[in-house]
Design a protein that fits this description.
The complex is a heterodimer of chains A (322) and B (395).
Chain A lengths: L10 E11 L7 E6 L20 E4 L6 H4 L13 E2 L9 E2 L9 H4 L7 E4 L1 E4 H9 L2 H7 L2 E5 L7 H13 L3 E6 L5 H7 L5 E5 L5 H8 L4 H13 L4 E8 L7 H11 L5 E8 L5 H7 L13 H14 L3 H7 L1
Parallel strand pairs in A: 2-8, 8-9, 9-10, 10-11, 11-12
Antiparallel strand pairs in A: 1-2, 1-7, 3-6, 4-5
Chain B lengths: L12 E6 L7 H14 L3 E5 L4 H4 L9 E3 L2 H5 L20 E4 L5 E4 L2 H10 L4 E6 L2 H11 L4 E5 L15 H22 L2 E6 L6 H9 L4 E3 L5 E2 H11 L7 E6 L3 E3 L2 H6 L1 H9 L10 E3 L6 H10 L6 E5 L11 H19 L5 E6 L2 E6 H4 L11 H8 L10
Parallel strand pairs in B: 1-2, 1-6, 6-7, 7-15, 8-11, 8-14, 9-11, 10-12
Antiparallel strand pairs in B: 2-3, 4-5, 12-13, 15-16
Helix pairs in contact in B: 1-12, 6-7, 7-14
The chains are: A alpha/beta (322), B alpha/beta (395).
Amino acid sequence: MSQSNKPAAPTGRVLNIQRYCSHDGPGIRTNVFLKGCSLRCKWCGNPESIRKNPELSYDPRTCTGKKACGLCLQPPFPDGAFYVVEGEDDKVRVNWDLAGDCDDATVALCPTGALSMFGKTMTVDEVLDEVEKDSSFYRNSGGGMTLSGGECLLQPDFSAALLAGAHERGFNTAIETACNVPWSFVEKVLPHVDTVLHDHKLTIPERHKKWTGVGNERILANFKKAYETFPDIDFIARTPLIPGVNADEEHIRAVLAFIRPHKNVIDYELLPYHRFGLGKYEHLGKVYELDDYKTPSDEVVQRLQAIIDEAFGRIAEAAGAR
Amino acid sequence: MSTDIGQSSSPKRIAINVGAGFVPGINAAVMGAALAAGKLGWELVGIRDGFDGLLHPERYPDGGLLSLGPRLIDNLDPAGAGVLGQSSRVDPFHVRTVDADGMVEEVDMSDALLQRLKVEEIDALISVFGGQGLSILYKLQRKGLNAVCIPRAIENDVAATLVSFGFNSALSFTIEMLDKARQSAQSARKIAVVEVLGAQAGWLALQAGIAACADAVLIPEIPCDLQALAASLKQRVTGRRPYGLVVVAEGAKLVETAQARADKPAEHALKASLSPLATGEASEHVIQRSGQAAETVANRLQLLIAEETFPLVLGPWTRGGVATAVDRQLGLAYGAGAIRALNAGNSGVMVAFVPPDIKFVPLAQAINKVRTVPADSEFIQTARSLGICLGREQS
């Protein structure tokens, strides 16, 4: 076969590659965040991952203003995309409705880096070469590569190729998913995965729709089918714990009732809600809808964690350790 | 769908819609446009819930369009706001949808919107919009839509018009609440620090503060030196008058010295809890989150003076209620003005009140500007003449 007839390696939309992670699968890991999500969780901590295509980001802290620079106020930047308000503060402001035509080439003209793009297209080898830089850590810790997002299953061909490639290079593989995708996407990716970290956000379909944009019927069906179809994969359920939304005993017990019959669901983790993503919303010109929500108290987290520990038979271990 | 909307004998079919967020008295603008259109023999139809009535007609028994004929208009309450409903999102370029695979995404439906207007034989659109809505209307106009904007803004920050629809109702309500806050402060012998709307412009805080005879008014345009504010309050709050009223716009800024910051680690913690973007240049602490301004100022002020302070936040309360006489008149005038603009062949314009006239300003001149309080504003001078501290010593 000639070189030109070889099928092109799949490319994907990558948001970020984050090294030295330790909470998203076994050992020390490199997390690869992919662009695009099929949910719209109001508490999302990674708003820059939601849209599938690259998008503009603006950090006013590094903008030097109209007098010192002002480059973005003229062509080739889109007409009306940037402006300055009269007054002492001459930092540029963004008209997010008119700035949609900005691309890598235009934002590269910003000399201070105040303008940048979230996301870029990469090949499988480009990603894996970056991941390979920490291969010695993976070997010593049992770690590897975790695909996250966004929703990594939204790019099934790219994700499958990345995970298969990681296995070929000897890395452990994991994915973080909410599984709101067609089953055909799931079954394409999961054969290349060692650990699946999957979200149980809300139990009641109507409430799931209210807080994430869609009901959870298909998500739960995918989870159940995945547990049964891939018995050798370790599944770890997770819940982003948000007071007033799902930080209640009823939800935790409902999730436990769903996962406990399946022996390959090896754990259930609580992820206390945080507000770390707030600044990113402002960089994207988006409104953070959970502005008034607070992190759950230690008492609430411990009480709910105790229910999980009991269900997984860890109470005795904890008592013994004391 | 761009057509010559100018003076012609043929009757026109005009649509009207309203942007996101409640503003008292929107019915008045609808009535103004309907009455003026009827006088020309034109038909006015209302689009329900922003653009939803056009984009999702299947959701509405009447197809999403409401005929605004004489019978309905005669029975409409001009002080109300509900005739066309509300939508939390009014952006046809990013319509949140769930596709056939059950996945959420934002879809550009602007072409579908223009097509629907064409199918409905609508010649032009009047939008009661403010803020982001102006940019959206500008984009639609660039795609060929005959559009006229009626400016609405609780904070009166839309450029190129002296006053936006809705501001006066918000102002009246804010004054009423400030009066009550002052009475509460008087009985408690404390200083009430009241946060009012105004992320970028301080019109509401300044005008309401003057009307309520506040002791101090902090607006985004004048970064506040807390030491100067404390010194002013020490003079005004005395044994004979042991209470005070400080009005803070939600976008107020504080100027801090490096020493002051170093002396107050607790305040660093507060700052750290805010967005990284909340810290501006030149040692200005920009309070950008609604509901935080009053608490921040009250807490810091209490460290500098003997009196106790207590924060209050008006916030979204300001948006409700019924329209004032001024907004009813303004709504009717803007509605009629929008029809006059179309009849005169104008498109892509915003109706503006430039005393003593109603004028038509190109949308391009209204977007990307914020109508802030200028340093030489008559209201600034009035406040200073009344002894109201504006957070910084007069230079």
